[in-house]
Design goal:
By secondary structure, the chain is mostly helical. It has 2 domains: 62 residues, Winged helix-like DNA-binding domain superfamily/Winged helix DNA-binding domain (Arc Repressor Mutant, subunit A, Orthogonal Bundle); 52 residues, no CATH class. Helices cover 62% and strands 9% of the residues. The protein has a two-stranded antiparallel sheet with strand order 1-2.
Length: 128
Amino acid sequence: MTPSKVYRLGDLQLKILKILWQRAEATVADVHQAVSAEETLAYTTIATMLRKMEARGLVRHRQIERKFLYRPAIKAEEVTRKISSHFIERLFEGNLADMIAHLLITRQISREELTRLEALIAKRKKGL
């Protein structure tokens, strides 16, 4: 994958990657069981999705006997950074303050979350 590539991930692909990031490596059966805790999908759906994700360079596999062990080929931080940057650029023309203002106005936020945001901003200010 090129460094500037934006990852376009469907809900199922993101769920699978989250499972693999948590476990480092998993069989199709492992992924199927974890996904099935939230929704009912066929084993073959998971196997097909993993093959497609491997073709896109999102996951890799190694074979042990007759089982494929899948692992993430991309880091969670990289995906988060690229998707969030793309989101901010598209919806807020790159203006982070506008995005934060929108979220503060449109979402419920606890006092604890506000305190955490204030601490993050203060820490960032010290680093400038």
